[in-house]
Design goal:
7-stranded antiparallel sheet; binds manganese (II) ion; 10 helices; 2 domains; Jelly Rolls; 11-stranded antiparallel sheet; 425 residues; alpha+beta; 35% strand
Length: 425
């Protein structure tokens, strides 16, 4: 039985329902009756069956919105956006969609773009004010960049590799034989993928005689430049990297703009693992820090917050939920799955719990050169126990068991075991 069904049955049982009622619940609104597993807005003896109209798929993906934990309260703003609800810009050669403050208004610090390029297709030569961090999600590509000292960088990237193009530096991305899909992250929530500086548009909006003078060649040499932007366009798959290398009299950019994240040894935790990639290990990434997290079924990214930056999340696999405590009487729970963006404003407390049966994989993205966090349990373990006891009325034994080191990802709830994390009612 999957956790959702278990939760529903627990909820129904807690309400004193007979087995017949559970079956009635599972039949849902009729439009979906034979598929079962229909979540209902019922929590213990509160709530009532949804009579419809409703979207079963939306409810299935957001069970903690339909029936929130009783601890949720107040008016925390929306902290979830599925890329599937973003406008998708289709071109011959691929597509791109973005999640910005226009889609997710709270996400002031960070914007994301999900892009696809078919084999050979090119994301046009361009630059922008924001720093660009990227993870290759599938396939392979060739990237180029030139720094302010005129030094070039040309490299191939495959699944699991990162790249980083600092603010203002010109770059390109071209799909190789497999084509590719990747995630781009920018250190400004108002970023727009549609208003970057494109080589085609600049060249088309400079007087032809200026182009001639600039390059020291006749105007006729520029007669065929495109009049409209290229953005994403098809091209032949390039040859081997060795054949694409260009000798640069200024040399190569000294800090590689590419980082092989999956070659990095993960830090093992009781309920999963983490890879922290900030400027300490990926020198070029001096204004965006990343953590790649894996949470095993039953595991949970422990209660914590980030003292110096908002957190922008991207979910790659699995099902998870997060409750964000926004100070005062404000706390709200969201559910996430592959393709979703999550967001946590700076200093707000949160956890991320695996609510499914497969490993949750997601990215935590931060602005700034270094990753930082504060762990609730580690904090309480390294201050005087009497102080903690006076606040929380915990036993000496409980306080003594708090770990003095950050666990980061904890294992299953000792009372419940994997796949049964949520209390009914
Ligand atoms: Mn870019
Ligand atoms: Mn966090």
């Amino acid at each position: 039985m999957d956790p959702m069904t278990r939760r529903m049955i627990l909820a129904a049982s807690a309400a004193g329902s007979a087995l017949g009622t559970v079956n009635a619940l599972a039949q849902g609104s009729g439009q979906d009756g034979n598929r079962g597993n229909v979540p209902q807005p019922i929590r213990g003896n509160e709530g009532a069956r949804d009579m419809g109209p409703r979207s079963i798929d939306v409810d299935r993906n957001n069970p903690d919105m339909l029936s929130p934990p009783a601890t949720d309260v107040g008016d925390v703003p929306n902290l979830k956006w599925p890329f599937g609800l973003s406008h998708n810009r289709l071109s011959a050669g691929g597509w791109a969609r973005e999640t910005t403050i226009r889609e997710l208004p709270v996400s002031k610090a960070t914007a994301g773009v999900n892009m696809r390029l078919t084999p050979g297709s090119i994301r046009e030569l361009h630059w922008h004010k924001e720093d660009e961090w990227s993870l290759m999600l599938n396939g392979n590509a060739r990237v180029t960049c030139v720094d302010e000292s005129g030094r070039n960088f040309i490299s191939d990237v495959k699944q699991g590799d990162l790249w980083y193009f600092p603010s203002g530096l010109p770059h390109s991305i071209q799909g190789l034989d497999q084509g590719c899909e990747f995630l781009l992250v920018f250190d400004n929530g108002a970023f727009s993928e549609d208003s970057t500086f494109l080589i085609s548009q600049w060249m088309a909006h400079v007087p032809p005689e200026v182009l001639a003078k600039n390059f020291g060649q006749p105007e006729s040499a520029f007669a065929n430049i495109p009049r409209k932007q290229l953005y994403i366009f098809e091209a032949p798959v390039p040859g081997p990297l060795s054949a694409d290398r260009v000798q640069d009299p200024y040399g190569q950019a000294p800090n590689p703009f590419v980082f092989k994240m999956m070659d990095m040894q993960p830090v093992k935790c009781p309920g999963g693992s983490v890879r922290v990639v900030d400027s300490a290990v990926f020198k070029a990434s001096d204004n965006i820090a990343a953590v790649y997290v894996e949470i095993e079924p039953g595991g949970m990214r422990e209660l914590h917050w980030h003292p110096r930056s908002d957190e922008w999340q991207y979910y790659i696999a699995g099902k998870a939920r997060m409750t964000v405590f926004a100070s005062g009487e404000n706390s709200r729970t969201f559910d996430y799955q592959a393709g979703d963006v999550g967001y946590v404003p700076q200093t707000m407390g949160h956890y991320i719990e695996n609510t499914g049966t497969e490993t949750v994989r997601y990215l935590e993205m931060f602005t700034g050169p270094r990753y930082t966090d504060v762990s609730l349990s580690q904090w309480l373990a390294v201050i005087p126990p009497e102080l903690v006891k006076n606040h929380l009325k915990l036993s000496d034994d409980t306080i003594a068991k708090f770990n003095k080191k950050k666990l980061v990802v904890v294992g299953s709830n000792p009372d419940r075991g994997p796949g049964n994390q949520k209390q009914p009612g």
